[in-house]
From TrEMBL:
<dbReference type="InterPro" id="IPR023753">
    <property type="entry name" value="FAD/NAD-binding_dom"/>
</dbReference>
<dbReference type="GO" id="GO:0005739">
    <property type="term" value="C:mitochondrion"/>
</dbReference>
<dbReference type="GO" id="GO:0070221">
    <property type="term" value="P:sulfide oxidation, using sulfide:quinone oxidoreductase"/>
</dbReference>
<dbReference type="GO" id="GO:0071949">
    <property type="term" value="F:FAD binding"/>
</dbReference>
<dbReference type="InterPro" id="IPR015904">
    <property type="entry name" value="Sulphide_quinone_reductase"/>
</dbReference>
<feature type="domain" description="FAD/NAD(P)-binding">
    <location>
        <begin position="20"/>
        <end position="136"/>
    </location>
</feature>
<dbReference type="Pfam" id="PF07992">
    <property type="entry name" value="Pyr_redox_2"/>
</dbReference>
<protein>
    <recommendedName>
        <fullName>FAD/NAD(P)-binding domain-containing protein</fullName>
    </recommendedName>
</protein>
<dbReference type="GO" id="GO:0070224">
    <property type="term" value="F:sulfide:quinone oxidoreductase activity"/>
</dbReference>
Amino acid sequence: MRKLNYVSLYGFTVRAIHSQVAIIGGGTAGLNVSAQLVRDGHFIPQQIRIFEPYKMHAYQTGWTMVGGGMCKVESTMKPMEKVLPKNVCLSDCPVVRIDPEQNTIRTMDGQKYTYDQLIVASGVQRDYASIKGALQQLENPEAPVGSIYYYRYAQKINKMIKEFEGGKLIFSEPPTKCEGIPSNIVFLTHERLSNRGVKCDYHVYKANDCVFGIPKYAEILGELASEKGIHWHLKKRLIEVQDHKVIFEDVETKQLYTSDYDFLHIVPPQKPASFIADSGLGDSDGYVNVHPNTLQHVRYANVWALGDCSSLPTSKTAAAVMAQTPILIKNLIRTWKLKQPPLSEYQGYTSCPVYTSNKKVLLAEFKYNKELDETFPVFQSSDSKVMYLMKKHFFPFAYWQLMVRGLWGGRDGIRLFKGV
Ligand SMILES: Cc1cc2nc3c(=O)[nH]c(=O)nc-3n(C[C@H](O)[C@H](O)[C@H](O)COP(=O)(O)OP(=O)(O)OC[C@H]3O[C@@H](n4cnc5c(N)ncnc54)[C@H](O)[C@@H]3O)c2cc1C
């Protein structure tokens, strides 16, 4: 639903379209923030504009289950118009530039937009192309190379596991902002292949220097892995994929290691969209440079960011988005409408559920400075069946039935009005 205020047919000049709130990205963060802004009655929907080029919204968390053979890809996608709050404006052309001094946004088709408040929620891009040969092998249906980080490659991983007849399995991880997600597919693959009695040799190559960034969970996962015969190789970064051969680089010494493989899972390097740095909004890594406790941009008081594209120094997860959303909304309303300073409320809460088998999940929950912040400590001293049931059945329900309606408050449960 695109509304042009004015188009001059003579000079081909297109007048800017104004919105009170512009949201770049209609992923988990963009959707959650727009749904809560509308539900809490802060704005009429027509005053909010979302920029999102994709026609389908993806519940990316579900791609782990697709790869693990626990659900079909169709249950992880819905058309954008079915999940967006009613009557918010949608621009389906990618944003290419922001001018934060002039409060303007430019999209790829040359259209200009203006805003009072800007929320950047553009996620991260998955950079398979930065690993030489990776895309060629991922796209080749015959090559035993897949990845849960993209739905088609997640379907391929599921098929690879079903058909695998034994040999050497390699799982590669670049430096990642959420270490729990990659471990899921390692354990799920192990479970399915052991159940079929397939003889396997498992190797995980991580660029990071530990199994998991939080010592408690690193210990639990490390022990489970060694019980299952999974070998970890730390500080190794995948740089090239060939037919049944991979090349890793030691991140410190730069020494190269080669290995053969019969099954390869790749976690892609991830990076923020280039328009963020090009527009002068990025930190040194190109993430939107926001204050870690308020989510407000460090230079522009009417610019905000949350989710994977933000500089918030915590694990990038949907669970973190659920915790960030109400704080961002509260601070946006306080600073803009009430002329009060933002509150430093966000303490970095995030959570990473890790499937350790197809019956149990280890729920890791923590905040800034690696501090534990557990909601169900009794079920979090090890992997647990209760957490498994929550992750497999309740979280997808909460996402599709509550979150998209602005009703999901993450670990605060169902939200009633949470105004300022
Ligand atoms: C395989 C996998 C498993 C995961 N498992 C879990 C889990 O178990 N628990 C958990 O909490 N989290 C999990 N996550 C993480 C979670 O999915 C992300 O943290 C979450 O989706 C981040 O939301 P976001 O809105 O920041 O980014 P996204 O959901 O990626 O949305 C970003 C949106 O911005 C749009 N966009 C990008 N560039 C532009 C542009 N230039 N103009 C306009 N729009 C643009 C994109 O099209 C996209 O729709 C998982 C992720 C993956 C991939």
